[in-house]
Amino acid sequence: MTVRFHxxxxxxxxxxxxxxxxLAYAQREAFINRVPEFSERNIKAIFxxxxxxxxxxxxxxxNESGRIRLETISSDNRxxxxxxxxxxxxxxxxxxxxxxxxxxxxxxxxxxxGITDVEMLVLRKQFKVLGEEPEAKxxxxxxxxxxxxxxxxxxxRDSRSSEPPMRAPKLPPLPEEAPRKKSGxxxxxxxxxxxxx
Length: 197
Fold this sequence. Notes:
With about 200 residues, this protein is of the alpha+beta class. The protein has a domain at about 1-130: Gyrase A, domain 2 (2-Layer Sandwich). The protein has 3 helices and 9 strands. It has helices at about 65-75, 115-125, 135-145; strands at about 1-5, 20-25, 30-35, 45-50, 55-60, 80-90, 90-100, 110-115, 130. The strands form 3 sheets. The chain has a 4-stranded mixed sheet with strand order 8-5-4-9. It has a 3-stranded antiparallel sheet with strand order 1-6-7, with no helix packed on it. A two-stranded antiparallel sheet has the order 2-3. Strand 2 and strand 3 (about 30-35) form a beta hairpin. The longest helix has 13 residues, at about 65-75. It is elongated. Residues about 145-160 have low confidence and may be disordered.
């Protein structure tokens, strides 16, 4: 599905740059630029809502290039119209025309009404919906096998390194301790066997 926003053009522009149109809400004849100011390629996410007339309204959050273009158009063309079109393979139709009344710097443009149920269904599948978590990510988390032992919680390992601890070499058993004298002095330690180099 395509989502295109065309700004109002000068009627003196040639037919290669501008095309005539009837503005439904402003109730007047006008010209719009043939090339859209921003389109579905600039949309990062959407926020839809149901309107009183039974159609859908939708706010479109634009990427950085779309945000800059929207800020430029809304600053330079105050009082002019911007016209939104939605299209499929079968054709494109004019959804709404709006008057640019102020500069928009946050990169969010909204169609207040006029989107059909079918169009909204496709838009929800095509773009990320603000406030909704994608199901695919949750499914991946559930399907991922969990490691039964987390090495960070394993007290037998050194907490400063992920490597397993080194084991001390096995030494020969020590001879039995000599009995202590009654005087409280300790008998000299017996000679221990030396480890060969």
